[in-house]
Design brief:
Distance between the termini: 13 Å
Number of domains: 1
Radius of gyration: 16 Å
Number of helices: 1
CATH topology: Lipocalin
CATH class: Mainly Beta
Order of helices and strands: EEEEEEEEHEEEEEEE
Oligomer: single chain
Shape: globular
CATH architecture: Beta Barrel
Strand order of the largest sheet: 1-5-6-9-10-11-12-15-2-4-7-8
Number of strands: 15
Length: 165
């Protein structure tokens, strides 16, 4: 069995802004700093667990690239607090779990349990990276909004898990 965690792999979440005041907001790259992934040597099945309290803002993104200095340390902490406490309700649901049901060369299908809700999800696979688009409302998550809804995070976020060999 191959085992991966934050010491030999990387899990990132990408959020995207929208709304009337989106010009003053930022797309974000967020690191999941505690997780474990096990891949069976026999059939390639995957079991993974992600600590919902471990999300840390890496940087703001502009046109798909990191934009250092756009967000200060204090704002990063505030965003992280909102993610953990408000968006993910991580005190109530501290673990995000995934168990595969079908693995092929280009896709991994399985059950994702997030925010106390389980749904089937399909991940795309390319080499040692899997990518998933997670529609937050499917898991009972209300995407973050501010300023009376004129600033919002899009309902779908992208998750990339890169495994080192």
């Amino acid at each position: 069995m191959a085992t991966f965690d934050q010491s030999n792999a990387q899990c990132r979440v990408f959020t995207f802004k929208e709304g009337l005041l989106s010009a003053v907001a930022h797309d974000l790259e967020i690191d999941v700093s505690r997780f474990s992934v096990e891949i069976s040597d026999d059939d390639g099945s995957v079991t993974a667990s992600f600590d919902a309290t471990s999300l840390k803002v890496v940087e703001a993104m502009v046109d798909g690239r990191r934009s250092p200095g756009k967000i200060g340390a204090r704002d990063k902490k505030k965003i992280e607090g909102n993610i953990v406490d408000t968006v993910l309700s991580a005190k109530k649901h501290p673990q995000v779990r995934f168990e595969s049901t079908d693995v092929s060369a280009v896709t991994v299908v399985g059950t994702l349990t997030l925010n106390g809700r389980s749904r089937e999800i399909r991940l795309s696979r390319e080499a040692d990276t899997v990518t998933a688009t997670i529609h937050q409302p499917d898991y009972g998550i209300k995407p973050f909004t501010a300023m009376f809804g004129t600033l919002k995070i899009k309902p779908s976020v992208e998750v990339k898990l890169s495994l080192e060999r």
